[in-house]
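As described in the Methods, two query proteins were run sequentially through the folding procedure within a single session, without resetting any intermediate state between them. The first query and its resulting structure tokens are shown here.
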Amino acid sequence: MLRNLLGRFVFGMLCVMALGAFLASCAYAQTFHVLHAFTDLDDGGLPEAGLTIDAAGNLYGTTLGTIAYDGTVFRMNNVNGGWVLNTLFTFTGSDGGLPAGRVVFGPHGSLYGTTNLFGGGTCQGYGCGVVFTLNVPASFCRSFWCQWNESVIHDFLGTPDGESPYYVDPVFDAAGNLYGTTYQGGSQDGGSVFQLANSGGEWKETILYSFAGSDGLYPKSGVILDAAGNVYGTTSSGGTFGNGSVYKLTASGGGWTLTTLYDFPNASNDGSNPIGPLLLDSAGNLYGTASADGPAGFGTVFELSPSGGGWTYTVLYSFPADGEPQGNLVMDSAGSLYGVGGGCGSYKDGCVWKLTHSGNVWSFTDLYDFTGRGDGFLPVGGPAFDTKGDLYGTTLYGGLQSAACPHGCGVVWELTP
């Protein structure tokens, strides 16, 4: 045990020294900064999801974990101009594992999230995933590193409710009900859309819809809500043409009715396999990404605009050379869109990009190209804005290497555009 602890300490010190050397060498990067490089020690490793930012500017995120862990939830505080990471919770399997979505703040200030695997279900022997909440310890804690208390509010069973909520960021309606999706399972085995309602401290699940194939298959990201409580999302495949779909769920007669807003009919023209969530602007337009195909071959950014009782689909940008956009989009006050791609950029290790709207033209700007080394590579989760307009995000790999992370354990980054 002592040898193990000593080894972990020495490795951690080497990692800190390596990170310091990298930061010094990257002083010329101007607007890009690595805030944390994961070590797969107590801080976890492999952050696949994006970040959530609170009113004080603190960052919250998740890591998938590697050999040592089944994943973590972390917070980063800006202390005297530097960033300090605190692991809020470490998953052990029975309480969930492999969180691929971000954590979000829900009612009463608690954090909510999902895990892709584990929990009490029995899907393929790995568990079906969970929905969880984290709360600050009730008793006073003298240490800065105190872990929060986790409660599993739902264990997925595979059938009939679904399994493996993947890139799912929980969302809440005005009544405090929580919504999300499962990638697989459900009554038709094509994934599902679910609602969890809290009544007297108990969460009750309602399946709003189960996908069967022609209506879409395998929703990989979560959903969004409009002011009327309608639910919007994407399926990564299926639909009439098998390339994925965009859908809307409307409460009707005590149930929910699905309307397909768009079936991706021609992968070469429109793109295919929308994996990321949608973005809704104040005019009711929907924005999203298709992770593959399109006119330039490697994914698209699209807009769906309500028109004459239907929806008009427009490709805003088509990625050449391994763009592969997957994560969420964010929009600034001027209406510009920001996102990430897993294979774009000069080094094909991912990039952060911006689309600016002027008249009927959208102009693409490459804000940063990841090199695949200390600055990270393969950004999967989309970026987040702070109140100053700075962008924050993660990369799944890159940063510091270890035996458990031969391609690096991932980083948290900041970009001031």
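Immediately afterward, the second query was submitted; its sequence and tokens are:
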Amino acid sequence: MLLFRSPKLTVATAVLLLAIPAFAAPPADPLDAVMTRMDQAAASFKGLTADIRKTTHTDVLNVDDAQSGTITVKRAKPGDTRIRIDFTEPAKQSVAIGGGKAVSYTPSNNEAQEVDLGKRRGLVDQFMLLGFGSNAADLKSAYTVTLGGPDKVNGEAATRLLLIPKDKDVLAQVKQCELWISEKGITLQQKFHTGGKDYVVSTYSRMNLNPAIADKDVKLDLPKGVKINVLK
């Protein structure tokens, strides 16, 4: 009977009860939400094809060197990701990373450069984390990650992350990294600050996730007679 005699108390109690869930279940942390999307994408990631545009900015000369082409990524197994990039503009150049080495071929002079990544494996692995199919735990172990905020890349909604390398050898080459992560948890853009106001930014578009990719699609078959410069 007391309940019916005190309508104001009943309304107040109802409002209080409705408010409880808001305090008991606060909105998810935005950074954690991005990391969760990355983990979900990493769990099913096998590879992708996309268009790539890479711009290298040299501040002292106020020069932007841009290259565009296509990229193919294949994750054969955890810790074994193969990449091939075929630049078509402004000049043809192909780059393949995998199998413990990186090879770059320029048709115009029929020359190739080869780098053994064995001694640099730790550095390579850390940079590969900034690509595709990386999970949150590995990323956080190698970088201090903070939230940059919402943004757009080629009109697609994204969240920008700021990363500072923890390893001093990586930090000597890259002072800060930025990643733009899509709503699907995939990297849409990367920016590497290499010192001063110099940077390299790579933007990806027309992505095709998890297509059938053969091993030959991420290999670089050099033509006969090519001059190979082995870099140490």
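Confidence is low (pLDDT under 50) at residues 1-27. We note this only descriptively and draw no conclusion about the first query from it.
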